[in-house]
Design brief:
116 residues, 6 helices, 76% helix
Length: 116
């Protein structure tokens, strides 16, 4: 069962990494609202179906935190407030970390091979 779960995560999780790769600060330290809007739409679509069955509760909670942060409209005339920037940055980082933890068995094995 664990192998099937990991196989499904390996199939579906890379898309979330591709989407979140587009959530980055532009010059000046802010986010592009158009890219953020696209990312939230793509993440919502990504989570439908199989992902709902294989995502861990920790990664799911992290997904919701990120989704909520990027769904908010920019606070200052088309730019995000410093608080929003921090929430989006932290949310993205934590979501990606949780996805990696869901694949942790693979990463632990790889790390132990490099050390040996």
């Amino acid at each position: 069962m664990t192998t099937k779960l990991l196989d499904l995560r390996l199939v579906h999780y890379p898309k979330a990494f591709e989407i979140t790769d587009n959530i980055f600060k532009e010059k000046g330290g802010n986010f592009d609202p158009v890219k953020i809007k696209t990312a939230v739409e793509e993440l919502i679509e990504w989570k439908k179906g199989v992902v709902n069955l294989v995502i861990s509760s920790e990664a799911l909670t992290s997904f919701y935190v990120l989704r909520d942060a990027i769904m908010k409209s920019p606070a200052n005339n088309g730019t995000y407030s410093p608080e929003q920037v921090e929430k989006i940055s932290a949310g993205t980082k934590d979501f990606r970390k949780q996805l990696r933890r869901d694949l942790g068995i693979l990463f632990r094995e790889e790390k132990s091979r490099r050390i040996a």
